[in-house]
Amino acid sequence: MTDQAMTMQAMIDEWYPVGLLSQLQPGGRKTALMGAPIEVACDAEGHARVTAADGRVLPVRARYGHVWSSLGAPQKELFPIPEADQPGRRFVDVGVVRVRCSPLRTVENFLDIAHFPFVHTDILGAEPHTEVQNYKVEIREDVDEVWATQVKFYQPQASKSASGGITTEYMYRVPAPTCSVLYKTCPPRPDEWDVITLFVQPLSEDLCDVWPWMALFDDETSMTDLIHFQQTIFLQDRSILENQIPRRLPLDPGMEIPTRADLTSIAYRRWLKRHDYTYGAQLVAQ
Amino acid sequence: MLSDTTGSWTPVALSQDLPAGTVIPAYIVSGSIALWRSDSGRIAASADRCPHRGMRLSHGFVRGEAISCIYHGWSYAQSGHCLRIPAHPGLKPPETIRVATYVVEEADGVIWVAAGAPGSMPPGLDGFVPFRSLTVHAARAAIEDAAGATAGPEGLVDITSGAGNIRLLLSAQDGDRTLVHVLLVGEADAATRISASRTVESLRRTAEDRQEKAAAQ
């Protein structure tokens, strides 16, 4: 087995986003998954169809606004997001942002709140409100997911529906190696959570397409403004992600220095390592 | 440039291109560095990588006498020691958190960085004054070829043109790129500067053309 095949082994049977359901076309769209060229199209009935370069038909799911596929044979069903079926929510296809970095680095950045005041200045954070309070992190064995709860942060403009600064509460979930689901204080509905997801398509080990998707309670803001808000945030993140060294995520200790604020990232890296989810990881310090 | 040995000086930038309170990326033999000048005017050079999450420090910001990483705001002193971790304002960062630093000298309008412990001071400029810098997508040999002259051991190339004597100070970058500092004699007037600029732009095009042809062979 080649090194490349070894690296892919554990992650090859996972589901990955490969395009928007709303933009399926009979003519198909060429893209890639873990280094392999694939084509995403719709058949005569309008169903998504994903094929490999050799004509092999790949497994498909149509969920959460996106087409999902896999180069392998998924052993597990695509992870659930119960809020996707909840009445009253608006579902937002944010589109795609291509980032020249490891898909794992993209997820890790999504799990991080300490960068808000410096990268998303005056939107998701602002000095001097930089302190990260203690929060809880666990790997939930029953569902095999990483969870961070009781995450709180002061935000000047937490979302389009927020007026002025509020302390926002967050919960993070990592249900798949390149996907994360964020539950966030919903300003108009204090008893509910807004859902913001990060679905990452690994094009290669150091190149990815990021497909954010949202399920919100917000009847006021226009779709354009919701999309622009999220795109602004992800473009700010991209300026970081494309300038981290190394481009792949170091899983061995010693290469980077975590602190207490990085507990989610520590758990994510540990979970990746435990499952040999190393496509996009750097295992030996260089 | 000086020979690529530990302790040699690299002319990384012109003084005029690094105002107080700013940071820029620069390149020496050991790799890319963050070159910054504090609010009070002191220059420092460090590895271009924050040890927390690997972000390039040259994308950071300078406040007072410290450089901060743009990702999480970790700040570092000129000595390289971490001064502050904003996520934990009450924490005094342990001594072990630091970035590698390099020796810097500023003389006659040029900023020099040493990869190791230099045994001497950077070379003098013999009355030449820095005018501007430009990056050429060509290696030293192609530039020498285009200039019709050979660089001395310190990376100095003298050319003559309608603008009078021009001295080039070459500094190798990553890939086949070269940073070229253009030096003129004394305080040149506007016409001389424009003429020198055109001469060097023309030299750049010739060198890049030769580099491309060499690469195609």
TrEMBL record, chain B:
Q: Which InterPro entries does the UniProt record give?
A: ARHD_Rieske_2Fe_2S, Cholesterol_7-desaturase, Rieske_2Fe-2S, Rieske_2Fe-2S_sf
Q: GO: which molecular function terms?
A: 2 iron, 2 sulfur cluster binding; iron ion binding; oxidoreductase activity
Q: Which organism is it from?
A: Pararhizobium antarcticum
* Residue span, Rieske domain: 9-113
Q: Which Gene3D superfamilies match?
A: Rieske [2Fe-2S] iron-sulphur domain
Question: Superkingdom, according to UniProt?
Answer: Bacteria
Note whether Transcription regulation occurs among the keywords. Answer: no
Spell out the protein name for this chain.
Oxidoreductase
The record's annotation in PANTHER family points to: 3-KETOSTEROID-9-ALPHA-MONOOXYGENASE, OXYGENASE COMPONENT, IRON-SULFUR DOMAIN CONTAINING PROTEIN
Keywords assigned:
2Fe-2S, Iron, Iron-sulfur, Metal-binding, Oxidoreductase
